[in-house]
Amino acid sequence: MLILFEKEASKSQLNQKIADKISKITKNNQVFSIYYAYFLDLKSDLDEKEILIAKKLLLSDNFSNQLSNKKYLLITPRIGVESSWGSKARDIFYASGINKLKAIEQVKLFIFDNDIDDKLIQNPQFYSNFFDKMTESLFFNLKDYNFLPPNIDKPNISEEEIYPYLVKSNETLGLALSSDEIQYLLDQYSDLNRKPTDVELMMFSQVNSEHCRHKIFNSSWVIDGDKKNKTLFQHIKSTEPEKSKHVIKAYSDNSAVISSFKTNKLLINDYNNYEYKNVQTHSVIKVETHNHPTAISPFSGAATGSGGEIRDEAATGRGSRTKAGLCGFHVSNLNIPNFIQTWEDNESISYPKRIASALEIMIEGPLGSSAYNNEFGRPCLTGYFRTYEKKIENNSYYGFHKPIMIAGGIGTIDNSNFEKKFIKDSDLIIVLGGPSMLVGLGGGAASSKHSSNENEELDFASVQRENAEMERRCQEVIDRCSNQDMNIIISIHDVGAGGLSNAVPELVNDSDKGAVIDIDKIPTADTSMTPMELWCNESQERYVLCIPEKSYDLFKEICKRENCPHGLI
């Protein structure tokens, strides 16, 4: 392990932000400095030339004695998860000729003055202000940090009867299964005369969640004894036939497609030269919500909300390109300190500790959405923001403690690409994009549960991490394929709620097919992940797509050119 150290203390707004937080729980202002350090996990030692290159790339020097007799906190990316920074930095090192690198991570060191009390540093109320436990890990000693998670013995399926096992799994895995669904599974597995595996249970909970299947929106309604003729979804969809003159497709793909016009499009031809082609294009539109993750971690939740909407556009038909985005937020009263408004109440109902406040959401959420859009290379041009919280009788409240976070966008798709094609038996299924990580596990089911019943650790596990630069690489691969005269993409879906356990069945079900999947071929950044975790995690910036077997070499060349990972599963 090679450790390089930043030469000067960081002068960021983070210092003041944390200082303001800890001043509320300590009598004296605590003086600290923030340094960045870099941990390099190497296959073999670097030579002098390679060390010099590494120092220049990181603007750093050898690990020095800044920590000598100092008290500090070490904040690292969450153990077992390669950060998006680490992934990008590793690629840059490889491009600079340093191939001995296995992994690299940037960490923060908060170095305190010597007069700080040891008991204060060890106090969770104090040190929790220095890191985000959803995306980071904390250590009190440099020697304790390791890239890999500790080996944990995965529990074997117990030899209980099926029903108690289902009830227990529903609670421990956060499956959000209703009593009717548990009874359905009990009937099915009793017929099979075996207990379900954790893979099957987690997959069922994701595919069958409200988030993915919209059971409530597709239900029949009886209101005050009057049976309604339409479901909520039928009411929503009823607007399309009435105004369908220019609608090419709606409610049948990842985005809607509206007819447009011919335009001169700048494309790369077969000789890698740019040229204009006059093509018939159509408009792609999409709006969706990302409420639960934004409630738990506003920046990451809003960022991955925008990222997921971008992928929905790209995965429309056989590949499209997004052009511009929007974001919106609905929250409870902000209650800004020393700036309480006339409609707000100082005694506003409190929040569960796992849910961010309305003010935190409106500070971090828009930044997350705009950051993702900017890093991907798409302008976020419009949006909305509203607050509502009302006290009613019996100390009950209406409000948006669980917020609404809306992500939307508009793009273009070629006339030749707006319909997916049917998959043949010999076609290949590919995962395009970043590796699997133990993040976003159970997100589809978690977002479908009532917030009051949620388990805090399952909440944090269900929120995804963002990497807009990886999504840009995927988009370039999709663009290169979809711009060809003979698009090699047969069908494509983005990987969202439920991970591959939802995306792959969705892909093959469109063609009334099944598929044989080799779990070991799924790209992963965490070798400790179980089959259930590989199959069901919601790592972002991924697509599943089908191509003809004969086109695989061409697809590999395109991925290599764009430095975009993929796995043939």
How would you concisely characterize the structure shown here?
It contains 20 helices and 20 strands. It is an alpha+beta fold and 569 residues long. Helix 14 packs across helix 17.
Can you characterise this structure?
The chain is of the alpha+beta class. Among the domains are: 2-144, no CATH class; 246-419, 60s Ribosomal Protein L30, Chain: A (2-Layer Sandwich). 32% of the residues lie in helices and 24% in strands. The protein is built from 20 helices and 20 strands. It has helices at residues 13-22, 48-58, 84-95, 118-121, 124-127, 162-172, 179-192, 198-207, 210-213, 232-237, 239-242, 291-296, 298-314, 358-376, 443-446, 456-461, 468-482, 500-509, 531-536, 552-561; strands at 2-6, 32-42, 60-62, 71-77, 101-112, 136-139, 222-223, 226-227, 247-249, 256-268, 274-289, 321-331, 380-387, 389-392, 396-399, 404-414, 428-433, 491-494, 542-547, 566-568. The strands form 5 sheets. A 6-stranded antiparallel β-sheet has the order 3-1-2-5-4-6, covered by helices on one side. The chain has a 6-stranded mixed β-sheet with strand order 9-10-11-16-12-13. Strands 18-19-17-20 form a 4-stranded antiparallel β-sheet, sandwiched between helices. Strand 9 (247-249) and strand 10 form a beta hairpin. The radius of gyration is 25 Å and the shape is globular. It starts with a strand and ends with a strand. Mean pLDDT is 85; it is low at 154-159 and 442-448.
